[in-house]
Structure formats: C-alpha cells, structure tokens
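Record pair follows.
FIRST:
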Amino acid sequence: MTILVIVIIVVVAAVLVISGAGFAIARTRRKGRGPVAPPPTRPSGAPPPGAPPGRAPTAPAPARAPPEAGVRPEAPVEAEIEAAAEAEAAVEVPAAPPSYRSRLGTVRGLFSGAVSALRSGRIDAETWDSLEEALIRADVGVATATALLDDLRSKVDTKEIRSGDDLLAALGRSIRELLETSGSRSLRFDGKEGSPDIWLIVGVNGVGKTTTIGKLARRQSAAGHSVLLAAGDTFRAAAADQLALWAERTGTEIVRGAEGGDPSAIVFDAVQRAAARGNDLVLADTAGRLHTKVNLVEELKKIRRVAGREPGNVTEVLLVLDATTGQNALVQARQFTEAVEVTGIVLTKLDGTAKGGIVVAVQRELGLPVKLVGLGEGPDDLVDFDPDQFVDALLATD
C-alpha cells in the first residue's frame, strides 16, 4: 500500500514538472518571438484571392534597381512628361501676321450701310449721304471727303460710273490714289560698316513710342541685325525700365542714363558704343513732348543733330501717332515734321478705332508715308502698311 502511494506521488510530481516546463517555454516564446515566416508565395499567373473567375491577372510593374553610388535616380515618367511640356511651352512660336480684314472691323462698320446699298445696285441721295458720313466719321477729313465724293459724282453724271458695283470699285481706286506717296514705305537701313544706322522715335506722351521701339527691335533682330537701344526718355517715370524690359525680351543691349539726365548725351553715348561694338542699328527713344512746347521741340532738334554726328547715320525719324486721336494726330504730324524732318509715320492702335481714315488724311495733306501700323497689342502686331489690304478691309462686306 505504501509503495503504491509513493508511485502515485512520483507520477503526479512528474506530470506537474512537465506541465510547468511547457508553460515556461511557451511564455518565453511569446516574449521574444522572432520574425514571422512570410505566407507562401502565390504561384505566377494565379489570380489574386477574391478575383472573379476567368479574370486575367495584372502583370506586376518591374522593380527599379537601386541606383549606384553617385548616380542620380531616374525621374518618374510623369515628371519627365511634365518637364518636356514646360520646355515646349517656353519655346516662343512666331505668330502669323494679323490680317487687316480681321482687325479693322470697327472702322469697316462705318461703311457697311453704304457698301451694302452699293452692292444692291442703288445710287441715290441716301447713298451719297451715307458715304459722306462714313468718310467724315472715319476722320478722313471734311476737305478730303468732299473732294473724293465730288469726283465720284462727276463720273456718275457723265455715265462713266453706271452701277453701284462700279461706284464701289471707283471709291476703292480713289482712296488708293490718295494713299500714293512719293516717299518709300520701306524702313531705310544703309548698313555701312563702322557707321550704325540711327532710327529716332518721336511723338507725344501716350502714343506708344516705347512699345513701338520694342516691337521694332524684335523685327530687326529677327532680320539678323544687331540692335542697340538708347533710353533717351529721361523725363517719364519708369520709361527706361520699360525699355529695359523690351531689351531683355528681345536679347538686345541698352544704354540708359540717370533720371532727368541729358537725352542728347545718352543718344551720343549709344551711337559711340554701337560703332565700337559693331552694332548695326540704334533705336533711340525720346521723351514725349507736346508739339506746342517750343523749348521741348528745340531739345528734340538737338537730339537729332547729335545723333547725326560721326559715326552716326540717321536714316529714319519715325513719328508715332495714335489713330484714336483722329484729326489731332494730323496737327501733331505738321509740328513734328517742321521740327525734325520726319521720314515716316507709325500709326498705332488702328485696330481699336473707327478713325482709321486718318491714314488717308495724313497721306494726302502731308505727303508723309505711313510705314507701319499697329493692328493689336501682340509683339508681332506691328506690320508694314499695305494700302491695298487697307482699302479691301475698309470696303469689305464680310
């Protein structure tokens, strides 16, 4: 009996020892558990769990190899596309020159009633009144309009003109004749070695002289000429800064002085620098001055004399006129021509006014060739004046 009890006690003790050891081992594993083994890899080509039956598996994206030491990682495809798009946008594509017909709708509207009547074949008192009103409102001028219509009436009376279409064609021819000039419409550029051409840009404040210079610099640079800008407007606040901005845009150099400085000295320095550095052309800005101020006009004469000294060669004095001012532009043209011998007219803002007939008035009364016209605010909207396109746009019905 005693032996049996002893055996039972030994067995119980052994079971307790084994159970305690197992408990201790499990606890130790929970505290310091190592890395969990990854789940088994899904066989290649097998559909992912939960995918609909028959669905083709998506090919995994290829893994990028880690970059070598000192080698820049490859940029993501999206970044490459974005960078290429930005580079393409930065390349400036020259715009097609604007057409007269697309930009002269305002002044053409004045003639639309009379033109429509002539297209229908009608020539009566109402037609003549409509034509006269259109010419005067377009600022052709009363004297010019009267002379133009008197000549057409006489041709109708003598049966030289028999229909509305004939009268419309004769009107176009007459306006073209008024736009004829003995002077050349081309911008003169001699291109003598060691003697840079000088183009002086003159006019009153607000007509767009500085902008005209910037657009001219763009045109001439594109034509292969080496251009230098002279900031001769030392009186208008920020005029030199505005011209400097155009110089930066067009890749041209600029000569500028202190605000309130002597504009003649700046133009002289620009001519000397152009001769020394081999520039072909100097575009000289001048302060906007009222044509009625005698002292300012005398200063402009001085700039003209200084610019023409050796090695300078003044080949153009371009008067910038604002087409929206109408007949007042004609008064300005007379005064400036007497002061500095203007060689040509630049007529700005022609696209935004019904007073486009001032082209005819300037041409007829002063004999000055209109060389350039502004048909918009874009950098390529300063174009050569073309009388044929101007008249066609003026009398078009579409």
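SECOND:
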Amino acid sequence: MSAANASTSPGFLDKRHIIARPGFTRWLVPPAALAIHLCIGMAYGFSVFWLPLSKAIGITKPVACAKDASLFFDYLTTTSCDWKVAQLQTWIYGLFFVFLGSSAAVWGGWLERVGPRKAGVVAAVCWCAGIVVMALGVSQHQLWIIWLGAALGGIGLGLGYISPVSTLIKWFPDRRGMATGFAIMGFGGGAMIGAPLADKLMKHFATPTSVGVTQALLVLAAIYFVFMMGGALSYRLPPEDWKPKGWNPDQARKPLVTAHQVHLDTATWTPQFWLVWLVLMLNVSAGIGILSMASPILQEVFAGRLIGVTATYDQLAPPQLAIITAIAAGFTGLLSLFNIVGRIFWASLSDHLGRKATYTVFFVLGIVLYCSIPWTAAGGLLPLFVLFFCIILSMYGGGFATVPAYLADLFGTKMVGAIHGRLLTAWSAAGVLGPWLIGSFREHQLSQGVPKAQVYSTTMYWLAGLLALGFVCNLLIRPVPESKNMTPQQIAELDAAAAHGAAVSAAHAAGPTVPSPAWLVTAAWLAVGVPIAWGVWITLQKAAILFGLG
C-alpha cells in the first residue's frame, strides 16, 4: 500500500470507517446508545456507596475524626478515621456533573469531527478508569484519589452522554424525539440497574475487615467497560444525504424545524440558544430540587400518616422511623421509574406535538401540579401527592430527552452534538440552583418555627415560579434567521475537514445490499432490555411498600 493510500485509509475508530453499508438497519443504533447510557447513568446511583464508605475504617460504625480535623489537611489523607457522608456526596456528585458539563462543552466539536465511535471508546476508558481510580482511593483510604477518579469519570460522563445524540438524530430524522429519548432514557435508568447491583456486590464482598466497596467498584468497572465498548464499536453513521424510505422532509416539516445548518460557533451566540439554555435550566432546576429531597419530603409531610398513626415526624419512635424510611425509599424508586419512562414518552410525543408545544405542556402542567401539592399534603391525600410527583418527575426526564431534538430543529443536524454539549452547562447550573433553593427554603422555614409538615408549601410556589419563567422563555423562541445559516460552500468545507478522503467513505458505503440479520437486532435489544427489565422489577418491588403491598 502506498503512503498516499495509507494516509487516506480509515483507522478502526475513524469516522469514515463506520459509514453503514446498504441494508444496515437503523434499529441497531439505539441499543448501542443505550449500552453506553445505562453504564454512565450509574452516576446517579453512587449514593449507594455513601453509608458503607462512611464506616470504611470502623466497618460496623463510623470512627470519628478529631473535632478540629480539616477537610483539606486531614480528611484528604487520613487512614485512621472515617469520612463524612457530605464529603463524599457533595464532592463526588459535584465533580461528576461539573466535569460532565464542561467536557461536553469543550470536546463537543471534537466529537463531531472524529465521530461517535472514537468518542464512545474514550468515554468508556475515562468512565471505567475513573471508577478504578476511585476503587484505588477506597482501598488506600485516600479521599483525594477518590476525587481524582470522580473528575476522570466525569469526563467520561460528558463524552458518553453526547456521543450518540447527533448519530441518532441523523438515523431518525423522522423521529428525532423518540431516538434521543431512547438513549437519554438509559442515563436515567443506569442507577435503577447499577445501584441494586452495587448493593448486592458489596454484600457479597463484605468481610469483618472490609465493607466490600473496593471490589464492587472494580467489578462494576469491568462490566461497564464491556458494555460501553460494545456500544461504541456498534455505532454506525448513515451515508451522506440518507433518508428513511418513504420519508419526505418537506411534507413532514413543522414550525421551527429548519432545513438548513448553523455552525456551532454561530449557534451559541444566538438568542435561540440562550433561550433554550434557560428553558432547560429552569425545567431541570425545579425537577432536580424535588428529586434531591424526595425522601425527606414524603417522610416529613405525611410522617405518622404513612403507617396509620397520628404523629409528626419528630414524635415517631425509631422502629416507626425505620418503617417510613423504607416507604420513602419505595417512593424515591417510583419517582426514578417515572423519570425514566418520561424520557421516552415525552420525547416521542414531541415528534407529534412539536418541541415548543411539548415544553409548553411541561411548564403549564408543572405549574398546576406544583401549586396543587400543598393542597394534597394538607388534606392527607397520599395517592394524589404521589401521582403529582410522578408526573412532575416524568416531565423532568422528558425535558432532558426532548432538548437535543429541539436543538436539531432550530440549528440543523450537522453540529447538533457539539451544540448539545455546550447546552449541558445549563444542567450544571441547575444542579446547583435546584437543590440550593429547596434546601435553603427548608432551613429558613424551620428557623422561623414552621412545622416540618408545612415547610415545603412555600417552596413549591417558588419552584412553580421557576416554571413560569421557563414558560416565558419558551414562548419567545423563534426560528433562527437565515443570515445565521451556513452556506453550501461552508458545509462542503466542514465536511471535507471532518472526513478527509471522502472517496474512501464512499467506497466503504458502496457494495451489495446485505440486510442486517433479525437475530442480531434481537440480540442487541435483549442485551440492554434484560438489565432494564431487572432494574424495573427491583424498583417495582420497592415501590410496592409505598402502598402497603411489600
């Protein structure tokens, strides 16, 4: 092979190497995306490790550090006393999601250039290596190593989260919402599978001298690496100008859906981008505030009524508190399930309603439900209270899943993955704003002597106010002016830079039609469907306790 040919030959991970051959079915791409998102979604489930890690030295109970111990001079390197839950929860979650947003924003353009396979492989390496580094930190009882692993894992989270977005939208231009809903559903479902699996692994590896966290993390890293690499290597891109059979984009076009392309650097300076940024941030802030406090809200609002006694939360005996804690865990599991289902339900519905109309439903219905929750709490209407929260969390998940299709409608599909990456900084902002709001209002109300059963009423009205602002922002979104669109020459130059040696891509995509075998499609869906079904079963078992069925 000549040097010239070698320079244009696609590497194994190269974007040109994954152009689908004729006959490839697009239904093999969603399970590939799910395989990655189900793994990185475990970021939500790391709370299962906090309590075991808080007694990693004491094993049966925490060994307290000196009262004057400093976080940055003692806890980071101590091997003689246990960490506090807050040092694990706040910092690890913070590092996960700050690096998720920043890595998605910084490397989104690179992902569009190199393609989803290479980005998916890098995501697998970073996420799984981050978990291994965290396991090392646990084994050595070095908090700074755990934090380092969380930062590395966060980079994997960001790249893994956005890697399938533009790919799925290119394969499903007729069902953009449904396609991205499938993938992002996996991120919501990762904890539903990973948390109970991690719990079983810790119990299996626990000994009189170990809480089993190190071994559990290493096993999870191995499992996730296999699944994520399988997903990344299964990615395929459609040939240029590919369209689903029988689909006419001009006939199917809805308001706000452009036929043009907007460059990443242009898109992020448009009012439309920042209005969508605010729409996502405000919707997520309200939902994540609820999600972060779901368990204490149920326990403190209903307290003894959950077990048929007339008593406030502070009046309950320890055995009674243990029972309502289990009930609240079932409530949290049910909310997680609706969070997952909402991602595919609302995103698919947006293909018919349109993205703007779907977000209008989120905000209008959300305002009504948030303002109704104090009424259900005061009246002791537990079924309605639970139902309203479930619908709210379904729209929280639906907001995540619908926004990539919203961006594709406004800015085109050429660079939607990179644009989505920059938009995810809204998630980072919401992750701070939502929990801070609900936590601050709770503490303020308690300091004013408000009973625990009533402290969340005012908070719900404030969260409804966030949704009202989001409603206005969504209402202001208009089509992107034609002056912002890329010219055909700019698109050609971008394509040439992204796929040097287009002749190789064309040759790779050419050839006889070879339909994807049905058994392969079935196997791909079973590989992700069986773990999801197991996670749903475990979640439903826990949720049954909420209604006295467990």
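COMMENT: The two ends are 67 Å apart (CA to CA).
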